[in-house]
Amino acid sequence: MTGYTPDEKLRLQQLRELRRRWLKDQELSPREPVLPPQRMWPLERFWNTFLQDRAPWKHMIYKMYRRSIFAFTHVLIPAWIIHYYVKYHVATRPYGIVDRKPRIFPGDIILETGEVIPPMKEFPDQHH
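Given the sequence above, the corresponding C-alpha cells read:
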C-alpha cells in the first residue's frame, strides 16, 4: 500500500487549512494592539501639562526638580540612614547615648557632685 488513504488525505487537508487560518489570525490589524488608557499620577500629569509649550525656562525648572529628587533619594536619605545606624548601633563612645537615666532614691549620693538626695516630703493628705 502506497500513499495516504482518503481519510488521511482529508485529515491532512483539514489540518493545513486550520494552520493557515491560525497564521492569518496572528496578523495584527491596523487598529491593534488595543491598549488601556494610560493612568498617570497627579504630579506626572502636572509636569506633562507644564512642559507642553516647550519653553526653555520651564525645562530648566523641570531639570532642577529632577536633580533635587535625585539628591534627596540618593544622597540625603541614605545619609540619614547611615547616621542613624552609626549613632545608635556602632558608636563606642561612652555616655554618647543614654538609654535610660539611672534611678535615684532618697539618700543616694550623686558621684559627680557628692550631693546627697534629700528624703521625700511627707504629705499627710495623700494616701500612698
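The radius of gyration is 40 Å. Try to locate this feature in the C-alpha cell string yourself.
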